[in-house]
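Hey, I'm writing a tutorial for new members on how sequence and structure tokens pair up, and I'd like a real worked example in the thread rather than a made-up one. If someone can provide the structure for the chain below, I'll link this post from the tutorial.
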Amino acid sequence: KMDDDDDDIPQLSSHTLAALQEFYLEQQQREGMKTSQGFNKYSIGSIEEDWQLSQFWYSDETALRLAKEAVLAAGKGGRIACVSAPSVYQKLKEQDGEDFSVCILEYDRRFSVYGEEFIFYDYNHPLDLPESLLPHSFDIVIADPPYLSEECLQKTAETIKYLTKGKILLCTGAVMEEQAAKHLGVKMCKFIPKHSRNLANEFRCYVNYASGLD
């Protein structure tokens, strides 16, 4: 016979319950905003950061500056690839009327909401890319490797070099300056990118062409 005792069922404290309810309420409100009219799936924060995937979105100003730089560098009718840099992709999609095409290579499948422009990408398999992504078919590649490690940078660099016709805009930690030069031949810019949440590590941009970021 089943025991009717509930003694062994863990009970949440009232404080934890209240916090949980608040969390779910906030989540519902956010989902409500997303389904209500005027929600822009391309706005930064429409897909929330997942810190377990080492995701940190740029501030609005930084994303816009990088998007404008990419459009200028790509030129009229240019092709832009965003590798692990979704907030720049989102800003690029807000540039109505500009003449360019863009795709996003990203590990996080939540970004598949962007349809055919989304390409699943795992830096551990840098050249495991769809056949439709022809070598050297992008005028500029913007990349933000998820981890500050030489292994991650080196593997992402393989992808970048495969995709780009030449121009590279890399965003990563200041501590990666030597490795960035070694693997991609890029130099640090004066422009200092900011994130919507402050990161402990100093972050910088690197390019291999005459950019507007100096």
